[in-house]
């Protein structure tokens, strides 16, 4: 081992307070050229980050050695999005040196919390899907699963959200502005990616067909590696690709002397990794987005092939050494690209190449929403990736011949085809991913069931054994141990620290749920976290909330199916009860919202304006603002999330049943002792099963009932006219008090709800309002609330991403953990 050679690879990377202090000052001096008296907080942060990165890399090299020694089978995770959150705190937690570092810094008159606050997080994703990928990296590393994660190094991540005059205003996220101490550029790991042009088919003397692609442009992808450390254990690499122009292309292709045009071309090719598309679950068929997808897939597959060949193995056995997980359809062009690489570059026969391909990939579906299912126009593919289009056609024609042999109707066959030619011909990427994979999974029990009954039902009939479920999970290390240290300490005091690696152990808390003293301590921790949240709310919005209030939170992307506006209707009903009915029976509540709207999503942006308008009205009305407060927290992020979940009493999970594939925020809230009010949607169903129905506030139609309601003809206007209280609330949306005399302001919301209401807000309204009354009844019994909160946490074991990753390993990947030998 490299580590056992005397004096080699060791360096000063000890974990003691003194070792760290020395390294930290050395980094400041030698890597930044600074001495403490002139250094900025950011200089100190960078020095600390570099100090810690050394320790993390040491763990990484060590794990790599072990994987190589065991010749282990491994996972490559392909995702267009990652939301890792701040690295520093998590790495300190996982190295178990938080307190030593705090002391070391204090001895240098520095404050760890201030340095932690300097970090700008990589916002390389939109929401749930990107955060899930990062939770899975945490668990892959912790469990010691040989793995590598690939993605795109967007120069600008998800936009920064500000609220101006109540509206969302977007600006660019310059996350690399102060440099990024966590990544290492790997100039030697770089690949060429081609685009455009045409193909030529020719037969050789043996009548063997040779196909050659003559692209008309090329771009280089360069690897940037960020180590992700697991708890007490190994590290894995997040490898993100940045696009650069190739030398040969930008200059040789142009007339000598035409320097500026050459440079312009160079800039254009570097555009590919400039910015993350800020749409989630809402398609915009942009050419650049397809270029991004192909770019990162092409680099990643070449890298995987490089690793396979480096180990002296043949490509015919690629699927034995690697499994490649597709995080939604965003990387699904990989199916065609792997075929191209095997056929055209490495000269395998079709049958052999197809066998390898379909035994290598597995596909996770994250949505049933038709508007989020990717379809690429054939014309676009023909221009950008002509060879891939040919391959897709060939896969399709062989697939269709195969299903013709089964009892499928003509209608089913055209439904299953990879090509949708009703209207402008498009390629259905979910079908490509399904045909090209050995396993397909949904992300909660309900969602996986619906996937097999709806979107992919014909495929499930054809290949029932291909379909499975892996319920999502979250890393309880970041979202409990790191972000809620007081609750973590209280838990460890009662049941020890095993829960950090075995979340099931939380079950041990159940027996303390009736202990008076434990309940008191539990609620003291919650109150402390609520004060902390209230302070941040004050700082970010200027709004004062009393920490004793019930803190009722909905944080997630803004989308009509998630029904933030249903929450607004409830708030308005309370407001009107206070103002009009002089009702004094409403417990003081702070309603907290957060989340971004896709910049082009009209309704979502209106909903933000609605929330802030209701907030302005309520927060400034002395008759109401002692009882109700409404806050919109701008720029929701992982960093903010870590502050919000610990301070929440109530978690809003109120999507229309059948629409939220899983949800993961629901798990993070419950893990921090918030109670849930929610529908039977996504993972809510399983959370309720685990915590017990008596510890969950359920309301609304079930998926089946939603289907029936829609089938029989849904008439929201009828509900409006028959429910007087609801009518009063809805009409208030058009009132001058709320709209300041602009009747158009919320008319789109009003009209939509009265006439279409595709997500059944009016249908579920009464049931929601009634269940909220029940919430208030329990809230007024603090002992009961505390008990329910403890029981929720005690039963969250199943929702650790460690369990999800173990499920993936067993049900899908057939990959095993590698045991680390101590140094
Ligand atoms: C195609 C493009 C417009 C697109 C871009 C991003 C489509 C979808 C997305 C992101 C989807 C997403 O975040 N889905 C969420 O995945 C979570 C993790 O599985 C689920 O918990 C959550 O219910 C689902 O909405």
From TrEMBL:
PROSITE patterns the UniProt entry points to: PHOSPHORYLASE (PS00102)
Pfam family, one: Phosphorylase
Biological processes per GO annotation: glycogen catabolic process
Residue positions, PTM N6-(pyridoxal phosphate)lysine: 668
The keyword Glycosyltransferase belongs to this UniProt entry's keyword annotation: yes
Keyword terms, alphabetized: Carbohydrate metabolism, Glycogen metabolism, Glycosyltransferase, Pyridoxal phosphate, Transferase
Cofactor(s) recorded in Swiss-Prot or TrEMBL: pyridoxal 5'-phosphate
Coiled coil: none
GO cellular component terms, A-Z: cytoplasm
Transferase recorded as keyword: yes
Catalytically driven reaction(s): [(1->4)-alpha-D-glucosyl](n) + phosphate = [(1->4)-alpha-D-glucosyl](n-1) + alpha-D-glucose 1-phosphate
Entry EC no(s): 2.4.1.1
Purpose of the protein: Allosteric enzyme that catalyzes the rate-limiting step in glycogen catabolism, the phosphorolytic cleavage of glycogen to produce glucose-1-phosphate, and plays a central role in maintaining cellular and organismal glucose homeostasis.
NCBIfam families assigned: P_ylase
Similarity comment text for this entry: Belongs to the glycogen phosphorylase family.
Protein name as it appears in the record: Alpha-1,4 glucan phosphorylase
């Amino acid at each position: 081992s490299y580590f056992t050679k005397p004096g080699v690879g060791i360096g000063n990377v000890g974990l003691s307070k003194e070792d760290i202090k020395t390294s930290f000052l050395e980094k400041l001096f030698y890597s930044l050229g600074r001495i403490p008296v002139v250094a900025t907080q950011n200089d100190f942060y960078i020095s600390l980050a570099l100090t810690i990165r050394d320790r993390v890399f040491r763990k990484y090299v060590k794990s790599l050695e072990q994987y190589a020694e065991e010749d282990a089978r491994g996972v490559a995770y392909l995702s267009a999005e990652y939301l890792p959150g701040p690295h520093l705190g998590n790495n300190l937690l996982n190295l178990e040196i938080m307190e030593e570092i705090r002391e070391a810094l204090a001895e240098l008159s520095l404050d760890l919390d201030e340095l932690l606050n300097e970090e700008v997080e990589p916002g390389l994703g939109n929401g749930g899907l990107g955060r899930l990928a990062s939770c899975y990296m945490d668990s892959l590393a912790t469990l010691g699963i040989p793995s590598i994660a690939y993605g795109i190094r967007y120069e600008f991540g998800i936009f920064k959200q500000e609220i101006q005059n109540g509206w969302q205003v977007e600006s660019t996220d310059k996350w690399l502005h102060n440099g990024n101490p966590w990544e290492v550029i790997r100039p030697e790991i770089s690949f060429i990616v081609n685009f455009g042009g045409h193909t030529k088919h020719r037969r050789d003397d043996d009548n063997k067909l040779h196909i050659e692609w003559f692209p008309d442009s090329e771009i280089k992808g360069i690897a940037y590696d960020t180590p992700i450390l697991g708890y007490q254990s190994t590290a894995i690499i997040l490898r993100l690709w940045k696009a650069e122009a190739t030398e040969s292309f930008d200059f040789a292709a142009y007339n000598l002397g035409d320097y500026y045009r050459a440079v312009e071309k160079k800039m254009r090719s570097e555009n590919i990794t400039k910015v993350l598309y800020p749409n989630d679950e809402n398609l915009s068929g942009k050419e650049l987005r397809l270029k991004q997808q192909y770019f990162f897939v092409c680099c990643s597959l070449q890298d995987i092939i490089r690793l396979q060949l480096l180990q002296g193995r043949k490509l015919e056995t690629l699927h034995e050494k690697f499994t490649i997980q597709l995080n939604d359809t965003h990387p699904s062009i990989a199916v065609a690209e792997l075929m191209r690489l095997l056929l055209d570059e490495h000269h395998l026969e079709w049958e052999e190449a197809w066998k390898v391909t379909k035994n290598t990939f597995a596909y996770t579906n994250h949505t049933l929403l038709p508007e989020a299912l990717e379809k690429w126009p054939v014309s676009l593919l023909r221009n950008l990736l002509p060879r891939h289009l040919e391959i897709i056609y060939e896969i399709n024609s062989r697939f269709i011949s195969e299903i013709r042999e089964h009892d499928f109707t003509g209608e089913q066959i055209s439904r299953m085809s990879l090509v949708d030619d009703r209207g402008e011909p498009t390629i259905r990427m979910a079908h490509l991913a399904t045909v090209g994979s050995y396993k397909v999974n949904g992300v909660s029990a309900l969602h996986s069931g619906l996937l097999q009954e709806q979107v992919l039902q014909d495929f499930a009939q054809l290949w029932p054994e291909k379909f499975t479920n892996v319920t999502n999970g979250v890393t309880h290390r970041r979202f409990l141990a790191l972000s809620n240290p007081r609750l973590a300490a209280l838990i460890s005091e009662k049941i020890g620290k095993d829960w950090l690696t075995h979340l099931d152990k939380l079950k041990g808390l159940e027996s303390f749920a009736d202990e008076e003293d434990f309940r008191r301590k539990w609620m003291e921790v919650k109150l402390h976290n609520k004060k902390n949240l209230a302070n941040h709310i004050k700082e970010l919005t200027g709004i004062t909330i009393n920490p004793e209030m019930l803190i009722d939170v909905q944080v997630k992307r803004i989308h009509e199916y998630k029904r933030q506006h249903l929450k607004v209707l409830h708030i308005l009903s309370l407001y009107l009860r206070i103002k009009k009915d002089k009702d004094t029976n409403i417990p003081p509540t702070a309603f907290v919202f957060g989340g971004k709207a896709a910049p082009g999503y009209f309704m979502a942006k209106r909903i933000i304006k609605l929330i802030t308008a209701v907030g302005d009205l309520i927060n400034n009305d002395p008759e109401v603002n002692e009882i109700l407060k409404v806050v919109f927290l701008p720029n929701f992020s992982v960093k903010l999330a870590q502050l919000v979940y610990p301070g929440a009493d109530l978690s809003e999970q109120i999507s229309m049943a059948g629409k939220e594939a899983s949800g993961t925020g629901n798990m993070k809230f419950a893990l921090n002792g918030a109670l849930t009010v929610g529908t039977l949607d996504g993972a809510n169903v399983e959370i309720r099963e685990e915590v017990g129905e008596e510890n969950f506030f359920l309301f609304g139609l079930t998926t089946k009932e939603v289907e029936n309601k829609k089938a029989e003809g849904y008439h929201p206007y009828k509900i409006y006219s028959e429910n007087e209280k609801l009518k009063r609330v809805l009409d208030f949306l058009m009132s001058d008090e709320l709209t300041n005399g602009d009747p158009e302001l919320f008319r789109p919301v009003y009209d939509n709800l009265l006439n279409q209401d595709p997500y059944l807000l009016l249908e579920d309204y009464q049931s929601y309002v009634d269940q909220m009354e029940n919430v208030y009844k329990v809230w007024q019994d603090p002992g009961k609330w505390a008990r329910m909160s403890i029981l929720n946490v005690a039963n969250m074991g199943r929702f650790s991403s460690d369990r999800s990753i173990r499920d993936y390993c067993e049900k899908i990947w057939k990959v095993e953990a590698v045991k680390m030998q101590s140094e």
